[in-house]
Amino acid sequence: MAEAIVSKQNENTSQRSLQIVVFKLGQEEYGLRIDQIKEVVITPTITRMPQTPSYVKGVANIRGNVIAIFDLEDRFNLQRNEAQLSGKKYTLVVESEDFKMGLLVNEVPNTISVNASDLDESVGIIADANAEVNYIKGIIKTGTRLIILIDIFKVVDQELTTNLKKATAA
Amino acid sequence: MNNKEEEYKEIFLAEAMENFEEINRLLTVLEKSKNDKNTVHALFRITHTLKGNAAGMGYTGIAEMAHVLEDLFGEVREGKIVLDESLYAPLFKATDVLGALVNSVRDGKEVKYKGIKTKLEVLLKRAHENAADKSEQEPTKVAISNDNPFAPDAIGVGAQPFVEEEAESPDESDTKISFSDLVQVPVRKLDNLLNLVGELIIEKDRILASKVNSGRGSNEYARLSRISSDLQYSVMDVRLVQVGFLFNKFHRVVRDAATLEKKNVVLKLEGTETEIDRNVLQVISDSLIHIVRNAVGHGVESPEERKAAGKPVEGTVWLTAKGETESVIIEIKDDGKGLNYDRIKAKAIAKGLATAEDLERMTQDELSLLIFEPGFSTMDQVTAIAGRGVGMDVVRKTLDSIGGEIKVSSEAGVGTTIQLTLPSSMAVKSCLLFELKEEVYAIPLAYTESVISLYRSSIHKAGGGLVASHLGKNIAIVFLKDVFDYDPIMVGQSNNALQKAYDSVHPEEKLDIVVVTFNNRTVGFVVDKLLQQKEIVEKPLMKPVDKIKFIGGFTILGSGNVCLVLNVPFILHFIFSLSSQGRSSKNFSLN
């Protein structure tokens, strides 16, 4: 009886679909869980902040909220082509309980629905090789596309805060 | 002044009514769950507070009544009186009279309270006698039950006439439910309100900025302007409280500290009606405790020393507040021995805070400020309340965080005065806007001393920094650009990081300089372009950029863009920690 329920649950999870917002960084496609994303806006004027790492582009006023704007291409040291350098038109506003921030993207991100079974979470090797906080949650494969699912708050959380502390402690 | 007194009275009445209702409530609770320790404690505390408040306001009737009740609950707490049925009647009666007394403050009616008061006093006396009897006869539990039933009886008979005599007057007020004219609002709601007003102001500025060119409907905009700024000041006014609320708590602080140190110290309060933003008061309360304790611990001498010095045995600590246009000054003064500058110098050298030559050059004021450095304590012995060497630097940090300033003046044998200059409101600041690398920044006017314009050629390199003389004064000059671009990793390679921008500027170029001063440190910041002066509503930055200490907050400009507000205390601290790091800058004196 109990076993039957468990197996049914398993079936459910494998059937469940995930909503992923996909955006391009460099040549790769990255994804975020849709519930971490609040909105997509046209990038407003960004005010630079002194003494911040280069991937912190500054702060901007988005609907009365002033939030920090990040450039993940810079953060991940991804190469960009000429067209991308010209300007990042859109800002993806992500939100958690503690943080609210904007990510710069070149194109309007699209939302896709993938099966939970398409998400491969056993990608520890990558994180180890990078020797950084494990912000990659998994790889999604749908058809020919390969999407890197990241946990944006892990990207920013520890590393940035220590970085900023270092900069201001001097 | 009259207004102030009215306001005091209002507040007192609101509190007293609340206390009265609470006493009523607790009494009924107590009647149901007999001898509940916590309830008795609460009753004791409330009557004590009420007594203190009433005495402070000069309402002797309320104070006396509350005093008797306090004593009674005190005895109950100690277990000397056991509350039973016969005792509740007089207690409720007393509470009603208390309520009537509080009401009489409002309507000026005369209330007789002596009768019930005497009755309670008799009860108390009886309880004392009982306790004495008990301990004489047989100190067992049985004795209590023997003694008790007859004790209230006897008193009941004795006090009966009093009760009857005053039965009429308080009774009519019993039946009415009274409402206070004051509303209690959580600070959180006020903060929210102020935030909204802040946004309104920003929005108003935006509309005005966009319409100023069209030139139409200027009347409407003038009205909008006026209403929104009235609204803003009203909301700010709501948040103001009198420093007396904080000051009055210090009687206890001084008493406790003095007892611990075995000193005689009295506290004198002045200017308690000065008004200040509630949040500012909250932020500095701990700091004030530190300073006052220090004044008692380090400042005031022991009674023997005082006698020997020909001073009154009793030391005095003054807490004074006075309001100025944009700030409130709080002074903590003692009549103790004053600061020992030789000791401060010795300690500063021992702790490596400064060198002997530095100290020679320092004025007394600057020396005094050394006591706010981390880990500094001139007291060789650590006492219970002061001398741990933590605290004073925390005081400094706290004041920095709200843009307050500290000044210390001291005279040997006469006493020490610590002066805190605090912003009267944390919400709205007058700021000077300027441009730097195409971004607009704001400097709070509280820190700016003057704005000057100099040719590059009149600025000179001195050690690791830059210096210029203006109006006969030598000022350290710093290109703000250099500070913001400062890279800690590069320090090893060049120690003149603060001269980089200077080298790239043409000698004939005219430079805009904002002279800022904070805690006796004066620096001229070179900026790209000065803009205007403006009233802004500063808001704190959100995570994770709130870690960037150079920026204290932000505001939104008429254009909708973000304007960063400089954290001047931190920037100065940063610059001076740089110049004390680099040995080459040793010869570079400020002012």
TrEMBL record, chain A:
Sequence ranges assigned to domain CheW-like in this UniProt record: 17-161
GO cellular component terms given for this protein: cytosol
Q: Which Pfam families match?
A: CheW
TM helices/strands, residue ranges: none
Q: Tell me which positions the record assigns to the signal sequence.
A: none
Superkingdom of the source?
Answer: Bacteria
Q: Which GO terms describe its biological process?
A: chemotaxis; signal transduction
Query: What protein am I looking at?
Result: Chemotaxis protein CheW
What organism is listed for this UniProt entry?
Chryseotalea sanaruensis
Question: What broad taxonomic lineage does this protein's source fall under?
Answer: Bacteria, Pseudomonadati, Bacteroidota, Cytophagia, Cytophagales
From TrEMBL, chain B:
* Annotated transmembrane regions: 550-576
Mind telling me which SUPFAM superfamilies this protein's record contains?
ATPase domain of HSP90 chaperone/DNA topoisomerase II/histidine kinase (SSF55874), CheW-like (SSF50341), Histidine-containing phosphotransfer domain, HPT domain (SSF47226), Homodimeric domain of signal transducing histidine kinase (SSF47384)
**Which GO MF term does the entry hold, naming one?**
ATP binding
Domain of life of the source: Bacteria
- The chain residues annotated with the modification Phosphohistidine are H48
Q: Which InterPro entries match?
A: Bact_Chemotaxis_CheA, CheA-like_dim, CheA-like_homodim_sf, CheW-like_dom_sf, CheW-lke_dom, HATPase_C_sf, HATPase_dom, His_kinase_dom
Instruction: Give the enzyme's EC designation.
Output: 2.7.13.3
Q: What PROSITE patterns would the database entry show?
A: CHEW, HIS_KIN, HPT
Q: Which residues form the Histidine kinase domain?
A: 178-426
The chemistry this enzyme catalyses reads: ATP + protein L-histidine = ADP + protein N-phospho-L-histidine
CheW-like domain sequence ranges: 428-577
* Name by which UniProt lists this protein: Chemotaxis protein CheA
Instruction: Report the source organism.
Output: Chryseotalea sanaruensis
Q: What is the lineage of its organism?
A: Bacteria, Pseudomonadati, Bacteroidota, Cytophagia, Cytophagales
